[in-house]
Amino acid sequence: MHEKILLRQGAEANLYKSEYLGKEALIKERIPKDYRNAELDSEIRKRRTKEEAQLLYNAKALGVRTPLIYKIDLSGATIIMEFIEGKRMKDALNGKNLNLCKLLGNKIGILHSNGIVHGDLTTSNIIIHNNAPVFIDFGLGFHSRKTEDFAVDLLNFRKTYNATHYKLGKGWNLIVRGYIERRGNAGKEVVGRIPKIEERGRYL
Ligand SMILES: Nc1ncnc2c1ncn2[C@@H]1O[C@H](COP(=O)(O)OP(=O)(O)O)[C@@H](O)[C@H]1O
Ligand SMILES: [Mg+2]
Question: CA 191 to CA 169: how far, in whole Å?
Fold first, then answer.
């Protein structure tokens, strides 16, 4: 086993940088929760690990960049995946690369058109690599065909986008444009649903 360097301790998982078959790798290890019954906890972590790996795989098959999966260890609730070089969108986006936003909207459109809801779209869960977005952290993702689920996915993203990039407001319009460009009327329907969800104020 190669050495593991702890990168981040999240609420759900520990992230390590390591090596796998001579390549830089990222190890995502879901951590046990004390407040849950141990057996149930282990089942939940196993299930989420499997689902996350499947979503990463499905997205990639659609042409949406995600880290390549190297190895899955269900009993250890661990995924070993490609380490993506680059900055998180949170740190990478500026006035000069705002065109990225349109591409990003396009990619979200591809996910939704194929029934994948990311579930945690934030500017920390997108890494900008070679000037293109790579989606990570499908830990809250799921399959759906509902306009409502897609609209909530976008609305959550808009909230974190606006909080992080309040000076780059145009970027959000580009994300929406890229999304609608990809999805046509279905996309317009999703975007149109957002204010209705906000009005209801019950999306959380
Ligand atoms: N494959 C990867 N390559 C490079 N960095 C990654 C990778 N996966 C995660 N990270 C880094 O670790 C952070 C947390 O990972 P993430 O999968 O989002 O876990 P969490 O569920 O704790 O949010 C990311 O914001 C990113 O900076
Ligand atoms: Mg994350």
Answer: 17
Pocket test for ligand 1, best of 28, 126, 129, 140 (most atoms within 8 A of CB): 28
What share of the chain has pLDDT > 70, as a percent? 98
120 classed as catalytic: yes
> What 3-state DSSP class applies to 29?
strand
Q: What is the CATH number of domain 5-82?
A: 3.30.200.20
Average pLDDT of the segment spanning 89-116: 96
Q: Which two tokens stand for residue 190?
A: 């999703």
CATH superfamily of the domain spanning 87-200: Transferase(Phosphotransferase) domain 1 (1.10.510.10)
Taking 70 as the threshold, does the pLDDT of residue 196 lie above it?
yes
Q: What is the pLDDT of residue 33?
A: 86
Residue extents of the structural domains in the chain: 5-82, 87-200
